[in-house]
Recover the amino acids of this structure.
């Protein structure tokens, strides 16, 4: 099967502003997608405790309903490899802008469907099925967003500014997390838990859909960065896997660079508060505060880390982050108690090193592949690794606890981070070269 389309317009970018490192319309158009991605993806996990009982039979226990809802959450991660392949191909064959318009449509549409989804009491088994399908669409769009927006942002960045621009992209993403946590917390205090469970949770998903509508408007003004001569405008099954066939070393490198990075992002960013609660009796209500502090600290730390990455290079920046997390994760978990202050300090310090990886990884991935294969080239191996490793961190931590081996979890994280650090040590420095054409 092949599909022919007219060539996208040639890039029409003006010189990026020195302060931003990227033209304003490109920054806003790319950044709004990061806000929506983090808002929509995290909303499901945070609100599951409220809406889970409404999508399963009345006789189902709260725990079973919650597990079923989190199972649907996992499906979103499973959809990510498909997203990296298909949406990445759209970005490479049809243009970055078209792919990013597609992802914002899907993210907004999925949020709207979840907001309006009927309950089990109203439509029976169709209710969890609707939730599942919406989550698959959301997973595909969110999973395809990263590679496409990375390609556009890195191709739009000024010379020597790709790390800084990557930091700005992460700033937008964490802004989405701050907005979500603030809205959920505010609603919970304003209308109470009973009202949230009765339907207040739907307000958050409606806001996510409205945010996507704003994203669609802002992305209409972006300039295309995929040059017409760089793309093969026929899509075939072979063309989908061609980037991996032509660049197998780079594909393996993406997996290696991502293994520990994605595990640490999910562990330090979302799981450690639950870990402190499960293992040390920290009250669960403090987890929201911890999550808010994580997002706020990363909004400051990642752009600063981007400056470091541009100044000293991807390789030394990622080596420092990788070594610190490899050597420090086990002692850090050993320091956790039921103290909220201690948890916050540990998370902020840990996220300072994660920021080094976040600011360097986006440009490092983009610098591995030529323009014609850039989105698909790293999108598929990256999404595959995030889906299999990052998305299963909470599951692994909980399962090790159930198996009576709680001390194994930190070493699991360290093993993954150690593998990635070996890749950091062996990677070629690419920060000071132009993007491959």
């Amino acid at each position: 099967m092949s599909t022919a389309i007219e060539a996208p317009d040639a890039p029409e970018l003006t010189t990026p502003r020195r302060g931003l490192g990227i033209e304003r319309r490109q920054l806003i158009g790319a950044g709004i997608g990061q806000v929506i991605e983090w808002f929509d993806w995290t909303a499901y996990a945070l609100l599951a405790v409220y809406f889970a009982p409404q999508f399963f039979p009345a006789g189902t226990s709260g725990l079973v309903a919650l597990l079923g809802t989190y199972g649907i959450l996992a499906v979103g991660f499973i959809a990510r490899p498909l997203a990296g392949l298909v949406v990445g191909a759209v970005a490479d064959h049809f243009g970055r802008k078209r792919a990013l318009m597609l992802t914002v449509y899907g993210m907004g549409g999925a949020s709207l469907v979840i907001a309006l989804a009927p309950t089990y009491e109203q439509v029976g088994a169709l209710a969890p099925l609707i939730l599942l399908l919406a989550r698959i669409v959301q997973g595909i769009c969110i999973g395809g967003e990263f590679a496409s927006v990375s390609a556009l942002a890195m191709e739009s960045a000024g010379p020597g500014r790709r790390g800084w621009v990557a930091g700005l992209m992460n700033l937008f993403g964490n802004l989405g997390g701050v907005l979500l946590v603030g809205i959920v917390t505010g609603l919970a205090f304003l209308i109470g838990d009973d009202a949230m469970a009765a339907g207040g949770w739907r307000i958050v998903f409606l806001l996510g859909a409205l945010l996507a509508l704003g994203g669609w408007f802002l992305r209409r003004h972006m300039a295309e960065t995929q040059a017409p001569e760089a793309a093969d405008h026929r899509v075939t099954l072979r063309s989908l896997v061609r980037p991996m066939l032509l660049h197998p070393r780079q594909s393996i490198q993406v997996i290696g660079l991502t293994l520990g990075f994605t595990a640490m992002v999910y562990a330090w960013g979302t799981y450690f508060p639950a870990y402190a609660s499960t293992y040390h009796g920290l009250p669960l209500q403090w987890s929201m505060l911890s999550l808010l502090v994580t997002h706020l600290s990363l909004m400051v730390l990642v752009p600063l880390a981007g400056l470091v990455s541009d100044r000293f290079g991807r390789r030394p920046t990622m080596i420092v982050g990788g070594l610190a997390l490899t050597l420090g994760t086990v002692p850090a978990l050993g320091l956790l108690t039921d103290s909220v202050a201690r948890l916050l300090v540990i998370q902020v310090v840990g996220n300072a090193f994660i920021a080094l990886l976040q600011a360097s990884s986006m440009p490092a991935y983009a610098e591995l592949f030529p323009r014609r294969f850039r989105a698909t080239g790293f999108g598929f191996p990256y999404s595959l690794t995030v889906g299999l490793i990052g998305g299963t961190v909470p599951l692994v931590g909980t399962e090790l606890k159930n198996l009576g081996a709680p001390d194994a979890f930190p070493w699991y994280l360290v093993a993954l981070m150690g593998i990635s650090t070996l890749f950091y040590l062996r990677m070629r420095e690419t920060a000071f070269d132009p993007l491959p054409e």
About this structure: The longest helix spans residues 162-219. The chain has 15 helices and no strands. Confidence is low (pLDDT under 50) at residues 1-12, 61-66.
